[in-house]
Amino acid sequence: MPKLKYPLLAFMLFLVSCDSQEGNSIVAPSSSSSNQNVAAIDYTLGHAMNARLGRGINLGNALDAECGASTGWDECWNNPIKPEYFTIIKKAGFQSVRIPVRWSEKASDEAPFTINPEFTARVREVVTQANAAGLVAIINIHHYDELYNDDKSRTDLELQKLKFLFLWQQIAASFADFPNETLAFELLNEGRNQVSAQLLNGLITQVWPLIRATNPGRTIIVNPANWGAFSEITTLELPADGNVIASGHFYDPHEFTHQGMGIYPQGVSWGTKSDVQDLLLGFESAYQQAQVKWVGTDGGTIPLNIGEFGANDNGQLADRALYTKTIREECELHSMSWHYWGFTGVQFDAYVRSTGAWIPEILAALIPSGT
To answer: Could you tell me where the DSSP H helices lie in the chain?
Structure first.
C-alpha cells in the first residue's frame, strides 16, 4: 500500500479494509446525526443559497463526457461549453447553472487517486466564466460508473468508495477559494445499482467532514440513491448541518419523458387532466414526506431542489412545454430551486446551438415573460 498523503483518509482506508461485507456503509467517527426528524435544524444558510440558485439549467454532455486532454476535456461528445453560453443563459433570466463533472476517470485508481490538474483547471475555468456572468454554479461528481457498477462486472467496490472520498478531498481543496455565495457542491449524481441508500448514507457521513475541513461555509447538495429520484428523497440520512440542500430528479412518467430512448417507444403524448393530476400527486407526496422528516427551526423544512427534469425532443413540443411548465410551477409554489435538463446538446434541449436561439415554447415554460 503506498504512503497516503492525507492522514484522515489514511484512517478511513484502514476502516474500509476492515469492512468485509460488500455494500456495507463505511463507519467512522462523526458528529453527524441521522435524527433530523427529532430535532429542528436552522436551515437559514441553505435556504439563502437555494434562493440564489433559483431558476437554473444544466450544462450536460460536456464535462461529464468521457474526454481526455487530446480531445478537449469537454469536447468529445461534441458539446463543448463555450464562454458565451453563460451570457446567453443569464440574459434569458436564469440564476444558476448545474455543471455535471466526470471526475473518476480523470484520476488515478491508486491512492491518493490524484486528479489530473489540467482537468481541474478546465472545471475552474468554467465555474469562473459562470460566476463572471452573474450565475451561481453547482459542480458535482457525475457518471461515476466505476462506483455504480451498472454492468455488475467490477469487484473493486471498496476501492471506489475510498476513491470517492479522495476525490472530494481534492475537489473541495481546489475550489475552496470560490466565494460561498457563487458555488455549491453536489456530492454524487444519481447513485444506483450497488450504490444503495445504505451505502450512499455511509459515504455522506464520511465525506462531510472532509469537505467541511476546507469549505466550512459551502452549501452541500445531496441527491438520493435509486437514480436520484425525487420520490426517494427521504431515504437520505443527512448530518445536522443547516447549510445543505436536498435534491431530487423528476422524470415521471419515463414512458413520456424518455420516449424513443432505450426501452421506451416513441409516440407517447402527455397533458391530459389525469396526466397532470398524477404528476402533481407524486410530486406532492415526496414534498410532504420531506417536510415531515426534516423540520426547520422556523417551522419550515430543509431547502429542496429539483436538479434535473424535462422531456426529450422525441415528444411533441406542446406536450414537452406543458410538462416543463407544470414542474417549474410546482417547484416555485414550494420555494424550491430547479435546474432544467438541459441547455443544449442533451436531447432535452432548451436552446438550439446550430441556430443560436432558444426554443420559444420551452423557454417560456421555464422563464415566463415578465418574471
So the answer is: 7-17, 44-53, 84-92, 117-132, 145-148, 157-174, 197-214, 254-257, 273-293, 317-333, 360-366
Coil/strand/helix, residue 23: coil
pLDDT value of residue 167: 98
| Spatial CA neighbour of 206 closest among 355, 366, 50, 14 | 14
**pLDDT given at position 9:** 52
Q: Quote the pLDDT of residue 298.
A: 85
Nearest of 109, 58, 90, 86 to residue 223 by alpha carbon: 58
Cα(360)–Cα(83) distance, integer angstroms: 22
Domains of the chain and CATH, by start = 38-366 (3.20.20.80)
Would you list the DSSP string of 80-133?
PPPTHHHHHHHHHT--EEEE----GGGB-SSTT-PBPHHHHHHHHHHHHHHHHT
Contact 326, 279 (CB under 8 A): yes
Beta bridge partners of 358: 351
Separation of alpha carbons 368 and 314, rounded Å: 23
The predicted pLDDT at position 209 comes to 98
The C-alpha cell that represents 306 in the structure block:
429539483
How far lies 171's CA from each of 125, 166, 178, 330, in Å?
14, 9, 12, 33
Could you tell me the three cell numbers for 360? 420559444
**Segment (H or E) for 250:** strand 244-250
Separation between Cα atoms, residue 230 and residue 221, nearest integer Å: 13
Q: In the chain, which stretches have pLDDT less than 50?
A: 1-7, 10-37
pLDDT of 38 reads: 55
3-state secondary structure (DSSP) of residue 247: strand
Distance in angstroms (rounded) separating the CA atoms of residues 230 and 339: 13
